[in-house]
């Protein structure tokens, strides 16, 4: 009887062992418990714990790409001054047997030259025929010192215009005179005031200079009234259009030669 009980207990233990092993294997690794934050929030609040909102990954903001061109230094191109041809050509007569000799500016002109010598005369200062509204009679000379023009009045509202050089600051003047004398290749006798003034600057002028290509009065001269002022040529044509003289009206030699043949003694001259 006892033996039968023992065998029955052994069989029972043997039958229970696989079930216990399977139970241990089943609960050896507990599966994770997934609870929604919205459902767990009331319970967590009772425990004094605040639920954290679920993490949501933010989409990265794509920044625009800016491309910059690399700066490359380029040296400026040299500027070359050019002037168109004269609107109306003048054929001057032969000026002087020594006109081919090199020209040298006079001392009193060199002292007041522009800072930069032009390579060519500006086109507006070349001789040309233009419309000119004036009440003056044909044959009158009108000198516009502000704009550096000399007008020889013609018929029908026209005038022959030349570029001129005028008095430098402090030597400007205006008035009305007549051409009292004309001279070809005039000699130059500097006035005593000019000799004294230039000597104070260290420039010593000659008492007299014979006519010729080196003479600052140039090829022709038209004397105005009883004054020391003249309309004359120049040995420094690049000064036309500037205020550099001591009051005289200077022209290019070819222009004053052309004017000389058109203007008689007694011609009215208005300087303004």
UniProtKB/TrEMBL annotation:
Alphabetically ordered keywords of this record: Cell shape, Cell wall biogenesis/degradation, Glycosyltransferase, Hydrolase, Peptidoglycan synthesis, Signal, Transferase
Gene Ontology CC, one term: extracellular region
Keyword Hydrolase tagged: yes
Pfam families per record: YkuD
CDD domains assigned: YkuD_like
Signal peptide: 1-23
GO molecular function per UniProt: glycosyltransferase activity; peptidoglycan L,D-transpeptidase activity
Pathway: Cell wall biogenesis; peptidoglycan biosynthesis
Domain L,D-TPase catalytic: 139-272
GO biological process: cell wall organization; peptidoglycan-protein cross-linking; regulation of cell shape
Keyword hit for Cytoplasm: no
Catalytic residues as annotated in Swiss-Prot or TrEMBL: 232, 248
InterPro entries tied to this protein: LD-transpeptidase, LD_TPept_cat_dom, Transpep_catalytic_dom
Family to which the UniProt record says this protein belongs: Belongs to the YkuD family.
Protein name: L,D-transpeptidase
Biological source species: Allorhizobium terrae
Taxonomy of the source species: Bacteria, Pseudomonadati, Pseudomonadota, Alphaproteobacteria, Hyphomicrobiales
């Amino acid at each position: 009887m006892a033996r039968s009980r023992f065998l029955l207990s052994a069989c029972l233990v043997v039958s229970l062992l696989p079930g216990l092993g399977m139970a241990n294997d089943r609960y050896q690794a507990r599966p994770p418990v997934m609870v929604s934050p919205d459902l767990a929030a009331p319970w967590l609040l009772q425990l004094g714990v605040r639920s954290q909102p679920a993490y949501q990954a933010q989409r990265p903001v794509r920044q625009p790409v800016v491309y910059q061109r690399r700066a490359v230094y380029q040296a400026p191109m040299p500027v070359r001054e050019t002037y168109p041809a004269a609107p109306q050509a003048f054929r001057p007569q032969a000026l002087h047997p020594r006109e081919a000799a090199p020209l040298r500016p006079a001392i009193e002109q060199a002292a007041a030259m522009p800072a930069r010598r032009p390579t060519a005369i500006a086109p507006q200062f070349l001789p040309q025929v233009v419309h000119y509204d004036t009440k003056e009679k044909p044959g009158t000379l009108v000198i516009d010192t502000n704009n550096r023009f000399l007008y020889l009045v013609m018929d029908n509202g026209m005038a022959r215009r030349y570029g001129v050089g005028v008095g430098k600051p402090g030597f400007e003047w205006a008035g009305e005179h007549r051409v009292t004398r004309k001279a070809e290749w005039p000699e130059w006798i500097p006035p005593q005031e000019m000799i004294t003034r230039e000597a104070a600057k260290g420039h010593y002028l000659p008492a007299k200079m014979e006519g010729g290509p080196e003479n600052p009065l140039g090829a022709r001269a038209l004397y105005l009234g009883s004054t020391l002022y003249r309309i004359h040529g120049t040995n420094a044509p690049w000064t036309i259009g500037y205020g550099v003289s001591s009051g005289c009206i200077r022209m290019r030699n070819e222009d004053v030669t052309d004017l000389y043949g058109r203007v008689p003694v007694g011609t009215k001259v208005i300087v303004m």
